[in-house]
Design brief:
With about 160 residues, the chain is an alpha+beta fold. It has one domain. Helices cover about 40% and strands about 10% of the residues. Strands 1-2-4-3 form a four-stranded mixed beta sheet, with helices on one face. A hairpin with an 8-residue loop joins β3 and β4. The relative contact order is 0.14.
Length: about 160
């Protein structure tokens, strides 16, 4: 497994969405995947002082249009870890994905679904990450300040406020 620092264009992309609300110096990218060959983000642990985005084939670069929404989604988990209980997003994500599998015939997708309009803190970890990635996506929210998801970027993500 290979691990690397963020590339300059990835840092620029991250700052477009998160501004300075994430410490990107402690983020790395690794060329493996998690359970079910799915991307995931691991928090710092003893001996590994970094958040690691496990993104498989995206290792060669995450700032391309085909990978950028996934990159933003996974960086939202870094944001969650840096602005809340360090392992909270991991437990929350595992719980809601497991419940989705149990309640939806083996499908994990319901853990990611959301309806805009709730308070940020009322969404589960994967829902929050989906909101941010969807706002960023050139095919969905298009980074528009008029998009219904923008309020979460403005009021929660950029100021680093998980409770607003």
């Amino acid at each position: 497994m290979a691990i690397r620092f963020l590339y300059g264009n990835e840092i620029t992309l991250a700052q477009l969405v998160f501004k300075n609300s994430i410490n990107l110096t402690i983020v790395r990218i690794q060329n493996d995947l998690g359970l079910g060959n799915r991307p995931w983000t691991s928090p710092p642990a003893p001996g590994v002082p970094f958040f690691i985005l496990h993104i498989g084939s995206g290792y060669s670069g995450m700032a391309t249009s085909g990978r950028s929404s996934l990159f933003i989604h996974e960086l939202t988990h870094v944001w969650q870890g840096q602005h809340g209980f360090l392992y909270g997003y991991v437990f929350n994500s595992a719980l809601h994905q497991t419940l989705s599998v149990i309640l939806n015939g083996g499908q994990v997708s319901q853990a990611y679904g959301y309806t805009p309009g709730l308070r940020w803190s009322q969404y589960a970890a994967e829902q929050q990450a989906s909101i941010v990635a969807d706002w960023y996506s050139p095919y969905i929210g298009k980074r528009s300040t008029g998009d219904s998801r923008y309020r979460y970027i403005r009021d929660n993500i950029r100021p680093g406020n998980p409770w607003a």
